[in-house]
Predict the 3D structure of the following.
Amino acid sequence: MIELVKDMKRKKCHDCGVEPGKIHQLGCDTERCPECGGQLISCDCFCLDDDWDLKKLKKYNREKWTGIMYEEAHLYCEKHNLWVYWEGDFKIGLVFDRGRGWVKCDKDFPGASHDLNTAMVEVMKNFKPRLKKTKK
C-alpha cells in the first residue's frame, strides 16, 4: 500500500537536523538552490570554491524544510498518477535474467511507489527562482 504525502510522518532534516518549517542550515545537502532549483551545495549560483556569496543569497527566499524528502515530487506523482515498482535481477534454476529496473504501474500494483525520477524532471522544468519581493 502506498503511503501518500498526507499520511507521511514529518521528520527533522536528515543532514542538518532542522525541524519542519525551519530554514536549512547553510551547507545542508538537502536544500535546493533558490535560483536554479538544483542542490544548493552543488551548484555555482551562490558558492564557488567553498566561498558563500551571502550578500547575493539574502536576496532570495531560502527553502524551508517540510519534513518530507522530495515532498514536491511526491505531490506531483499523486496529482499526475505517476507510480513505479522495482523489477530487479532474478534467477530461476540456472537461468539468470536482468530485471527491467523501475517499471511504470498503477497505484494499486503490489510494491508500487512514487515515480520520483519522472516527477523531479517535471518539477525542475517548472522551477522558478524564489527572489524576495522588494519593497517599493
Notes: The first strand starts at residue 47 and ends at 48. The beta strands are 47-48, 51-52, 83-87, 90-92, 95-97, 101-105, 113-114. The two ends are 51 Å apart (CA to CA). The mean pLDDT is 90.
